[in-house]
Specification:
294 residues; T-fold; binds adenosine monophosphate; binds magnesium ion
Length: 294
């Protein structure tokens, strides 16, 4: 982390298979103090990765995936409320976002060609937020079906950014920009001599630039981990209702007050396509969606 002459403190961390970068406007605050706060915020992201990663055998999510089909698994209150929010959002997104997509994402991530339809159907039957049983009194989660797998890949980055932003705010940072892998970004206040942080969307043929101030932007697109078959390109976002990856050449962006919701909703918008924009706007006041051809 460095403090520069322009009063900006910069920091970065590799976590959640991506790079998070933070810029803090130190203003009147001592640069060393701003730096320490920035480090604490990024540490929070690393801490959350250890708890939420599907791929870390010691994570809370790995523990849930290993045991929740056998018996209720007790989880700490913050994770319980995250799971509750995920399930509520799955319902509000009509299943286009689904944190239990793990059986399908595993199948398609390993695929180099289209899997047999019996394998797709078997994985689809092991996904479904309706089969998650949450007991608020006991703070437990249980799966109603065997083989279910929680995968917070579509929401974890946004959640971690919100938590890191909360660390910054609680320690008096009023102006900062934090992004994770360029697909999720959160702005606090505005940079020096400007009304907001200007963020370009590279997946947008119309060259949209968003001006963010105390708000978030998340983008989902069919790129990255993909494979092609029969002249079609398949992405890493799956429609949990059909079991198939999204192959439309689209990107979806959502802006709004919280990074977590933006992350969830941009994934859901990519699955639904532009027809879902009125529903998104009606159901999630303060959030706005955009769908574009890259
Ligand atoms: P994002 O880039 O935020 O759209 O998230 C994509 C990641 O979330 C994928 O790599 C999967 O791990 C997971 N995922 C894929 N499809 C879905 C879905 N429909 N709902 C929830 N998570 C998903
Ligand atoms: Mg997402």
């Amino acid at each position: 982390m460095t403090a520069t002459d322009d009063g900006l403190v910069r920091a970065a961390i590799d976590a959640m298979a991506t790079r998070f970068e933070l810029v803090i406007v130190a203003g009147d605050m001592d640069a060393g103090r701003a730096r320490a706060i920035g480090e604490e915020a990024l540490d929070e992201i690393a801490r959350l990765e250890h708890r939420l990663s599907l791929f870390r055998p010691s994570s809370d999510i790995a523990g849930i995936n290993a045991w929740a089909a056998e018996r209720p698994v007790k989880v700490e209150p913050a994770l319980f409320s995250l799971l509750q929010r995920c399930v509520a959002l799955s319902a509000a997104c009509e299943g286009a976002f689904d944190p239990t997509v793990g059986s399908l994402s595993r199948l398609w991530k390993a695929a180099t060609t289209i899997p047999p339809s019996s394998a797709i159907e078997a994985a689809r039957c092991r996904a479904g937020w309706q089969h998650v049983i949450l007991d608020a009194d006991a703070s437990t989660i249980r799966f109603a079906r065997k083989g279910m797998t929680i995968d917070l890949g579509a929401a974890g980055k946004g959640y971690a950014i919100d938590r890191a932003i909360a660390v910054l705010e609680s320690q008096g940072i009023a102006r900062a920009l934090l992004h994770g892998g360029t697909s999720s970004v959160h702005a606090l206040g505005a940079p020096p001599d400007d009304t907001g942080w200007r963020v370009g969307w590279s997946g947008d043929s119309r060259g949209n630039v968003f001006e963010l101030r105390d708000g978030a932007l998340s983008v989902s697109a069919v790129h990255g981990r993909v494979f092609s078959s029969g002249g079609r390109t398949y992405g890493h976002v799956i429609d949990p209702r059909t079991g198939w990856p999204i192959e439309r050449r689209l990107s979806a962006a959502v802006t709004g007050p919280a990074s977590f919701e933006c992350d969830v909703l941009s994934t859901a918008l990519l699955v639904h396509g532009a027809d879902w924009l009125p529903a998104l706007q009606a159901r999630f006041p303060g959030y706005e969606g955009l769908v574009n051809l890259p």
